[in-house]
Amino acid sequence: MIVNRNITMTWWERIYLPEIFRGISVTSNHFFRNLIGFIPALLNKDKKRKIFTLYYPDEKVEFPPAYRGRPVLVVDENGTERCVACGLCEIVCPAKCIEIQPDETELEKERYPKSFSINMARCIFCGFCEEVCPKEAIVMSDECEIADLDRNKMFYKKDQLLISKNKLQKRLNYIKEIYGKWNY
Amino acid sequence: MEDFLITTAKVLFIFGLNMGVFAPLLTWVERKQSALMQDRIGANRADILGFSMIGLFHPIADAIKMLAKEDFIPEGANKIMHTLSPIICVVPALLTFAVIPFGGEYVIGGKHIKLVIADLDVGLIFIFAISSLATYGTVIAGWSSNNNWSLLGSLRASAQMISYEVAMGFTLVGVFMVYGSLQLTQIGAAQESFFRWGIFLQPLGFFMFLACAIAENKRAPFDVAEGESEIIAGYFLEYSGLKFGMFYMAEFLEIVTISAMVTTLFFGAWHIPFISSALILSMLSFLNETLANIILMLIHISVFWVKVIFFIWFQMTIRWTLPRFRYDQIMKLGWKILLPLSLANILVTGIVILILQ
User: Which of residues 46-85 of A touch B (CB under 8 A)?
Assistant: First the structure.
């Protein structure tokens, strides 16, 4: 069936051959750019990469600090977590995936979470827990490869959530900047 | 005895190069080139001991996969024809190389050696005769499968191939009017000087021949016969395992054949632009005659295959650039545009030859 689409072509387009060459020049432009561009990527000299396709499992993206990966608990220099088990994140969590059991401690902060678990199968990565936290104790990291075939393994315990402060410094600076108006 | 050995060596060279290098490598080339053109990465997962070699092991993986698959013949299919048709597809693609010269004539050890397996006087006509046999392969494949989609595919394939065969024959009439020979070695030898190349003498002929040849090969933009999105895979839908692989092999070998023909007829065969064989021989005059001729032969062979590889690249680029034609557009292009244009090309060529005489 011939459908009349009311396309009017110029004489130049109707002789077809020049348009073919235009198309070929576009595709071969991409071809040569990618043909040569992957060499610096393989040699890990990709400071200014020409191609934007990543060789994913071999090559990883560095996410910007605004990226929200899985939530983690910040561990301070003295080796303990910042969390004081106030329970705000537990309450604000829209997916109700955080569960905290508080306990008392001899340290200055007086309270600490005896157990802290996040059900990552339910987490929606909204970042409310991070926003509501008065101690900057729970932040969103840049880890996103957390898929699993077993639901029980998606139930993250406290020892899986603790990550030292140095690794999260970028995100900590970033949340100070965006939530700074609350002056905590 | 000597002649027999030389011919055997040539046959082994052509056969080995086609079946051992081009047929497996082109599957890799097609996947990788299409990936690069579309800003993807392409095949790179198959590895041996952790070395993936930019995906070069994928042809081996493919071959193992095809050998391990079940060789399925559908119920109600004509078993003999079903088995025969992949062979009918592959053989013509290989056979056309018998008359295509991949080098000139050399004096080695006082013996004149022509780098062509069979130097037929009717080389071009032989190529037409053999390549039209491939039509039978597709028609029988579609018919013997006892499947409606296959039959539709083979109907489309036969109609398309037969219509483009006519135009293809006429486009090349201009070439042998200009060179005055049907012998491919003579056509090649006549293109010694750069401005006697077929592309300058028959520019329209080149474009029309390439279009017809790609249509003959049933590759995109002329792949309605295969039509993955409409009739699944067309004529080779009911094939599996090695037979399916043979259809692909035939397609890839045809690409090489078309590239070799375009090189021989329009792009100076084995000649290097502006550098004649006599010039190379005079530069190599400090060696003895046999050695100089062997070096010249190696240069010419590599020049020929470099040109062939360029045209393989070009055909792949066309295949991954242009969208598929509609069926009526294919027929319109074949009968209403290419056929009259090729006839006009013959007329104009004849008039110009008459004027120049």
Answer: 51-53, 55
